[in-house]
Amino acid sequence: MKYFKMLPKTNIDFVGIRKIFFVISGLLMAACLLSVIFKGLNYGIDFTGGTVMQVGFEKSVDIKDLRAALTEKDIKADIQTFVDRNAFSIKVKGSQEDVNAVSNNIEAALNTLNTPFVVEQKDFVGPTVGNHLAKKAIMAFILAMAAMVIYIGFRFQNIIWGAMAVVALFHDVLLTVGVFSILQLEVDLVIVAALLTIAGFSVNDTIVIFDRVRENIGLHPKWSIKELLNVSVNDTLSRTVITSLTVIAAAAILYFMGGEVLNNFSFAILIGLISGTYSTMVLVPGLVYQWTKEGNYSVGAPSDVKAPAVEPKKNEVKKKSSYKRKSKAGK
Questions:
Q1: Which of 30, 210, 259, 264 is packed most tightly, with the most Cβ within 10 A?
Q2: 30-68 residue pLDDT tens
Q3: Residue 242 and residue 160 share a domain
Q4: Of 95, 125, 155, at which residue does a domain stop?
């Protein structure tokens, strides 16, 4: 803690350079949006439907060997392990007509392991379930965004601040989805959970900055909105960077060492954290300033924070004392 206290205080004009970041973010968002529209997303079995096959082995089988056997047969599958016994659930995307062909390919791949197994269950998850889950996921995201706008608007008595925070959240989510579209990484319900996690983390940093702006309004009521935003972002900059780097490091370890099952989830978290940190520091203050401009803002200052008393200037004190002496002499 002593080391961080010794760090020099930054004085970066984030608001002044906002247009540069607006252009950068606009280009990135346009590229991601075009990729989503024309290239589309690689939806997982949760959204598209496919074959679900549960197999049990007589002996213990390593999931890495099972995945390698399926990969050799060009089978891209999601594999889940049953901890209490030697069984696995294998999910492969496809239509209902492909169930028998897919299951035969899976059995052929499993035979290469030279370990006896039994097909315990074979079923098809239809697209109807996938569409239902997709609608629920979209609805959950919309409700989360609306709740954030209402909370921030109520908390800081300014609905515009909540709207600008949600614009930044949309930026972070769109960039993450766009990267998945460009790289054609699989999107399933786990990725939806990652997107909601990204939104929560990003809005938390934004609220910290808004709270500092709120405090500074009470302490410096004559400051312009540009001064308030720049000082507040610089005051919380070390906290934002250190917190974000800590979480990014944890997500990076999860990505490189968590295995293939967690790769897409941790990769989405990494992209969202980097984008969220960027948008918190440069986009949110720029958007708030662009909307409010000089002096056109209102937010409730905390009741326990009062502006410092302004001491009278020395020449004013002298004038008052000389006036008293003159009045006494006149009497």
A1: 210
A2: 999 999 999 999 888 877 888 888 898 988 888 888 888
A3: yes
A4: 125
Query: Is 300 part of any domain?
Result: no
159 and 113 assigned to the same domain: no
Q: Which two tokens stand for residue 120?
A: 């315990």
Sign of the dihedral through C-alpha 193, 198, 203, 208: positive
268 is a domain residue? yes
* Closest among 175, 152, 154 to 163, alpha carbons compared: 152
The answer to whether the Cα torsion of 308, 313, 319, 325 is positive or negative is positive
* Per-residue pLDDT, 23: 94
How much is the pLDDT for 25? 93
8 Å CB contact between 179 and 273? no
- Exposure of 76 in the CB half-sphere (CA atoms within 13 A): 8
Note whether residue 204 is domain-resident.
yes
**Which among 66, 96, 125 is the end of a domain?**
125
Averaged pLDDT of the chain:
80
Percent of the chain with pLDDT over 70: 84
Say if 287 falls within a structural domain: yes
Domain count, the chain: 2
Distance of alpha carbon 275 from alpha carbon 38, whole angstroms = 23
Nearest to 113 by CA among 59, 73, 82, 69: 69
- Same domain membership, residue 187 and residue 171: yes
User: Residues for the chain: how many in total?
Assistant: 331
Euclidean distance between CA atoms 271 and 241, whole angstroms: 15
State both tokens at 194.
Answer: 């990652």
Q: How confident is the model at residue 8 (pLDDT cuts 50, 70, 90)?
A: low
Domain range for 195: 2-41+130-292
66: domain CATH number is 3.30.70.100
pLDDT 10s digits, 116-170: 889 888 888 776 666 777 778 788 778 878 887 888 777 777 777 788 888 888 8
